[in-house]
Each structure stands twice: as structure tokens, then as C-alpha cells.
Amino acid sequence: MQVVEAKGLAIPLVGLGTWALRGRDCARLVEQAIRLGYRHIDTAQMYDNEREVGEGVRASGKRNEVMVTTKVQPTLLSPPDLERSVKESLAKLRLDVIDLLLIHWPNPRVPLAETLGAMAKMKSEGYARQLGVSNFTVALLDEASALSNEPLVCNQIECHPFLDQDKVIAACRLRGMAVMAYSPIARGGAKGDKLLERIGKAHGKSAAQVCLRWLTQQGIAVIPRTSKVERLEENLANLEFDLSDAEMREIAGLARSGGRIVDWTWPPKWD
Ligand SMILES: NC(=O)c1ccc[n+]([C@@H]2O[C@H](COP(=O)([O-])OP(=O)(O)OC[C@H]3O[C@@H](n4cnc5c(N)ncnc54)[C@H](OP(=O)(O)O)[C@@H]3O)[C@@H](O)[C@H]2O)c1
Question: 155 CB under 6 A from ligand 1?
Fold first, then answer.
């Protein structure tokens, strides 16, 4: 598996997203993905599937080769809530440690310094190996970098050709953080896009593979989700071809205002 390095952590370029995967299907897909070569599985407290994700990882027999990411719910960012919820996550996952622990969304109601302090405590006490953030803006990345005593290895953000994320990507790179793209095939929207299909045809690849390759070729880690075993292979195989500079530029031209898929009310309000 090809990786992107950030602050000493080797992050697999392709991982499996698990939002909306549930029950036996979730455990089976996770196990199958690892058997096919996936080395990163992304879950979150919010997805209510940590138990099944852990089950799939254990069933693969390759726990030691796989990076498991989970994320702390934005309503649980005060230190006592965060600490309790991380211990619960680990108990549900039934793994030795959380490889990568992220703040799922910022919550302006809880001081960031307190949350980052609690995250660092989780690391020093052995609950998490590495720490990072998700859905952080450029300003919040500045704030977090100044406040955190521990390295923050990545910012997981919505990222695909239909959305211009250049500023936040540049801010991550400036701080040596990896960019991890969620909704990397625009929740399936890549399929049916004329440009991605045309470029795919020229390479004997699908539009979804072109969409993913556009990201991985920039050193952006992707976590596409699928409920179909055959698509696990298709999505992983985006690493097997290269786009030309002209194709990369053409795809970048797909960005448009209103290209965001996940609701982005700013500042976020969490009750
Ligand atoms: N940090 C955050 O706030 C945040 C927010 C959103 C998501 N995430 C994470 O990122 C992961 C991925 O994002 P996502 O689930 O929103 O969207 P996504 O991965 O961009 O798209 C998933 C959708 O695409 C379809 N699909 C998958 N592979 C395909 C292929 N090769 N060709 C055509 N369609 C394909 C899937 O349908 P089938 O099941 O039918 O294949 C599914 O409907 C999530 O699962 C989650 O782990 C994080």
C-alpha cells in the first residue's frame, strides 16, 4: 500500500470509509477490504458501528498491519466527556489502541485548548497512538497548531474535484499535516460526470477511479465508502495508473460554488 507521510506517521493513500455501514455487512466489508489490501479503516463515534468495525479488523487476522481511525463526537469535546467517550470507543472496537484519534468537528462552545489537552492525555495514557482533526478551517488549524503539545497528523476534510479546497490544503501542507479526503467520490457523484468518464475511458478506468486518482496523485489520502465487495477492488485500483498534467488540470476545473455535499453551517452549532 502506498502511503503519505506526516509527522512520522505513514498514512495509507487508500482507506475504507464506513459511514452508514451497519451490522454484519459492515464487519464483513471491513474484513474483506483488509484481505484485499486496505490498510486504513475510518469510523467515528457518530457512525454507531465501532463494534462491527473492530469485529471486521479482528476477523481479518491483520490487526497489526491496519490503521484504525475513530473520531470524537463534537458534543463530547469537554475533557471529561472526551475521556469517557474515547474509553468507550476502545471498548466497542475491542482493539489494543486507537491508531488515529480525530476531533470530528470543532465545537465553538468548548475551548479548543481544553479539548486538545484531553486528546494529548488520551495519547499519553496509551488510548490513542496519533492525533488529528477533521473539518478544521485555516483559522482553526492555526489555533490548534499553536495550542497543541502533541503533533496533529492530519485534517480530514470533504475533498473531491467538485469543491475547491486549495486554501485549506495549503494550510495543512504548511504545517506538515496530511490531508485526508472524505466523500472523495462525491458520494457517488463522480459516476456519470462526463469529463471523468471521458478521461477514464482513455485509461480503461471508471470515473470513480479517475476521481480518486486525482486526489491520491496529489498525495491526498482517500477513504471511499462502498457497500459492494467488487467496488472495494475498483476503488483500491485507482493507484494503478497515472493522470497526465493536462488531465489533472482539466479535473481541477470541475470545482464550482455549491460543490459541497456535507452540510457546512459555519460556525457549527452542536447542542
Ligand atoms: N469527517 C467527517 O466529517 C466525514 C464526513 C463524511 C464522511 N466521512 C468519512 O468519509 C467516508 C467516505 O465519504 P462518504 O461515505 O460520504 O462518500 P463517498 O465515499 O464519496 O461515496 C460513497 C458512495 O459512493 C458509492 N460508490 C462507492 N464506490 C463507487 C464506485 N467505484 N463507483 C460508483 N459509486 C461508488 C457508494 O455506493 P455503494 O455502497 O453502492 O458502492 C456510496 O453511495 C465516509 O464513509 C466516512 O468514513 C467523514
Answer: no
